[in-house]
Amino acid sequence: GNSVTQMEGPVTLSEEAFLTINCTYTATGYPSLFWYVQYPGEGLQLLLKATKADDKGSNKGFEATYRKETTSFHLEKGSVQVSDSAVYFCALSGNYGGATNKLIFGTGTLLAVQP
Amino acid sequence: KAGVTQTPRYLIKTRGQQVTLSCSPISGHRSVSWYQQTPGQGLQFLFEYFSETQRNKGNFPGRFSGRQFSNSRSEMNVSTLELGDSALYLCASSLDLRSFYGYTFGSGTRLTVV
User: What are residue B110's DSSP bridge partners?
Assistant: First the structure.
């Protein structure tokens, strides 16, 4: 079945450091891929998405490229801020021909950015 | 425009009771899904509704049920609560069932069972 594997956290960085959070997936067909972020005490916010191979999703300085050859969707940011501290979830939604939006999530990666 | 609204935000219930959670999707969104989030199991899919029909169901016992109304608002119900049902319950809405849209999530209902 479909699955998502994320790197274990927590990831602790100093402000302005480079961030990479690894995400790989297993899926049949051509899934859509997403990164969601969850701040303490809140729900999930869609950070970025990519719907086909080689697409690059980007938002708020974060980027991720849909790599079908390596089945990966790694999240990157060139210079993190304290305000980026949160839990990041990689997720996929299989291409079911419009039959479902069901998301499969990774376990989440806690990012802590220190001033 | 208003986001996904979940009520109540916090709830404390006793084992054996039942509970109903409510979700109002973004205006115009017809797909509503529910997820359970716990520290041990992470984010798990409960069910998905579209046009008042359950389209997909996760691997949860029959004590968990839901429905969607004609205005796309949704409710989920958990009967005979167990301690293990303590979790953050997240509702999410999307325009329709095409997966590339992604979801917009609400802030969740934090359920504590004592």
Answer: B10, B88
Q: Is the dihedral of CA B58, B60, B61, B66 positive or negative?
A: negative
Contact between A46 and B103 using a beta-carbon 8 Å cutoff: yes
Q: What is the C-alpha R_g of chain A?
A: 14
pLDDT digits (tens, 9 = 90+) for A67-85: 999 999 999 999 999 999 9
Q: Give tens-digit pLDDT for B6-64.
A: 999 999 999 999 999 999 999 999 999 999 999 999 999 999 999 999 998 999 999 99
Q: What are the chain A neighbours of B106 within 8 Å (beta carbons)?
A: 43
Q: Within 10 Å of residue B92's Cβ, how many Cβ atoms? A: 27
Q: What percent of chain A has pLDDT over 90?
A: 77
Chain B hits for A46, CB-CB cut-off 8 Å, are 102-105
What residues 54-83 of chain A have any CB closer than 8 A to a CB of chain B?
Answer: none
Q: What is the 8-class DSSP label of residue A67?
A: B
Strand order in the sheet with B5-7: B5-7, B19-24, B74-78, B64-68
CB contact under 8 A, B90 and A44: yes
CB A4 within 8 A of CB A64: no
Cα–Cα distance between B113 and A62 in angstroms, integer? 38
